[in-house]
């Protein structure tokens, strides 16, 4: 009898294991799980002091809590340095976040001089070079003083070996040029400065987002003079090959795709967003349509075809909805019903932009801020399903519409740069478009003397 019971138990365990691994087939991908080797190189010189060093440790622990630590996910190593570097935590020695955090908390402050160059070299030789994983490699240098040894060449060599370097400077003794020479370019992304150690908690979120962008959004989209991290969804879905017909957008150089109901713009999410999406991003699309029904301009479906993320155009109500995941019950749907949303339905070209952050989502139409709505905390997306564009909601049928652009930018700052320069119809009589450093401006040209009229900014145009 006891034997039979054991047999049943074994069977039950086997069944359960199968059930669990089937669930595992639908893994959620996000920054928590994106694989990367991450090394913190911490200044432990005299100028820091034991109290501030405790703050640094607490900051390190708080950043680490955002990641799932493990051989398949992120691995974190720590080097502390003063005159010489000390290997506090090697890469890949921890299988869980809790153990790693315990070890971080027990790091002892060194005291001494500031030999940053030596520490970067050490991190390369003893941590990165020993990791057998081929993936994103990131080093974060946190210092409060000028290095007392050669650092520029060492950093350049590390970057050449595909290590992305972030530099964080604390306090007034910092030399800005040195931080810039250590870190990757552009400095606006890879160099941070805070006035004192108390203030480093303020850059925790931005560092978390930047670290995530490195592992989740490795592709770069050329935008004006810079390369932006993100996803060109039209490229990801092979639209160029699948949609034959192009339309020239009048008065611009831009071409758009004429999507008909015969094409299927779908792709495995795993191929488009292999590591999911970062916590904050900007969705941008330029399109025109005539359909009066409800359709998803963009959607990411789970394996059982439920939308996890969607930008939905509600033709009946003339509103726009944004669907995303939710920690509370799986999904949340945010509907924008402001009167200005109706302009989307005038059959002309429009730009839709959604700034998505951890706490809110803001809708912009043709560069005009429409509405901001709060978001509940989100979950990672399942990557085993499909990513699609231009589908009727709840159906597989493709919508007939024209699309020029559909992108996700991982840096939320891109929201301030992405503009409507390429939208036709805005450079008609007297109006001209100016590509300025911060974006696209529309000014009214005074034909009598060729100067711009003051205050003739976009506001008055649409
Ligand atoms: C880390 O998080 C804890 C708990 O939220 C907070 O009390 C502490 O101030 C944080 N430390 C830093 C340096 O941000
Ligand atoms: C989740 O909760 C929201 C309200 O907070 C509700 O509108 C929505 O229908 C719920 N979704 C599911 C799948 O239960
Ligand atoms: C051009 O003409 C406008 C009025 O049409 C005037 O306000 C402006 O000062 C003139 N600019 C120059 C450079 O003369």
Distinct small molecules: 2-acetamido-2-deoxy-beta-D-glucopyranose
Q: Give the CATH class of the largest domain.
A: Mainly Beta
The CATH architecture of the largest domain is Sandwich
Biggest sheet descriptor: 9 strands, antiparallel
- Share in helix: 10-25%
Portion of residues in beta strands equals 25-35%
Low-confidence stretches: 10-24, 422-462
Write the layout of secondary structure elements.
Layout: H1 2-24, E1 28-29, E2 36-43, H2 50-64, E3 74-81, E4 85-89, H3 97-105, H4 116-128, E5 136-143, H5 152-160, E6 163-170, H6 176-182, H7 187-190, E7 191-194, H8 204-216, E8 220-223, E9 226-232, H9 233-236, H10 239-242, E10 246-248, E11 255-259, E12 266-268, H11 269-272, E13 281-289, E14 294-301, E15 307-314, E16 319-326, E17 330-336, E18 350-356, E19 360-365, E20 368-374, E21 381-382, E22 386-392, E23 401-409, H12 414-417, E24 431-436, E25 439-444
Parallel strand pairs: 2-3, 2-5, 5-6, 6-7
Antiparallel strand pairs: 1-21, 3-4, 8-9, 9-23, 10-11, 11-23, 12-22, 13-18, 13-23, 14-15, 14-22, 15-16, 16-17, 18-19, 19-20, 24-25
Helix pairs in contact: 2-3, 4-5
The structure holds 2-acetamido-2-deoxy-beta-D-glucopyranose (3 copies).
């Amino acid at each position: 009898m006891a034997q039979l019971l054991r047999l049943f138990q074994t069977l039950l365990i086997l069944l359960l294991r199968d059930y669990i691994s089937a669930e595992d087939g639908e893994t959620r991908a996000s920054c928590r799980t994106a694989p990367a080797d991450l090394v913190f190189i911490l200044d432990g010189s005299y100028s820091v002091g034991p109290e501030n060093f405790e703050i640094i440790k607490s900051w390190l622990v708080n950043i680490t809590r955002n990641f799932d630590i493990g051989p398949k996910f992120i691995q974190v190593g720590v080097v502390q340095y003063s005159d010489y570097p000390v290997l506090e935590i090697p890469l890949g020695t921890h299988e869980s976040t809790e153990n790693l955090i315990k070890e971080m908390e027990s790091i002892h402050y060194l005291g001494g001089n500031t030999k940053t160059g030596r520490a970067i070299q050490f991190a390369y030789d003893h941590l990165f070079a020993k990791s057998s994983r081929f993936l994103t490699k990131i080093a974060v240098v946190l210092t409060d003083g000028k290095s007392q040894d050669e650092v520029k060449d060492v950093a350049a060599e590390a970057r050449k070996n595909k290590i992305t370097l972030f530099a964080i400077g604390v306090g007034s003794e910092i030399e800005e040029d040195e931080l810039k020479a250590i870190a990757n370019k552009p400095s606006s992304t890879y160099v941070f400065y805070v006035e004192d150690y108390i203030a480093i908690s303020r850059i925790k979120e931005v560092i978390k987002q930047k670290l995530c962008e490195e592992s989740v959004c490795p592709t770069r989209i050329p935008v004006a003079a810079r390369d932006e991290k993100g996803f060109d969804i039209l490229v990801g879905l092979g639209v160029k090959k699948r949609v034959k017909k192009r339309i020239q957008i009048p008065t611009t150089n831009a071409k758009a795709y004429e999507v008909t109901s015969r094409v299927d713009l779908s792709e495995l999410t795993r191929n488009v967003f292999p590591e999911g999406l970062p916590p904050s991003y900007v969705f941008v699309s330029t399109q025109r349509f005539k359909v009066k029904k409800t359709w998803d301009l963009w959607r990411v479906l789970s394996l059982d075809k439920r939308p996890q993320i969607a930008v939905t155009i509600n033709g009946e109500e003339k509103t726009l909805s944004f669907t995303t995941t939710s920690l509370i019950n799986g999904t949340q749907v945010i509907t924008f019903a402001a009167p200005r949303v109706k302009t989307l339905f005038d059959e002309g070209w429009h730009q839709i932009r959604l700034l998505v952050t951890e706490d809110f989502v803001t809708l912009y139409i043709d560069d005009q801020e429409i509405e901001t709505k709060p978001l509940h905390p989100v979950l990672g997306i399942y990557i085993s399903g499909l990513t699609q564009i231009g589908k009727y909601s709840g159906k597989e049928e493709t919508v007939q519409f024209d699309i020029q652009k559909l992108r996700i930018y991982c840096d939320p700052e891109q929201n301030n740069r992405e503009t409507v320069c390429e939208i036709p119809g805005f450079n008609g009589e007297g109006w001209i478009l100016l590509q300025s450093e911060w974006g696209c401006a529309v000014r009214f040209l005074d034909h009598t003397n060729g100067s711009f009229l003051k205050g003739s900014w976009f506001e008055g145009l649409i």
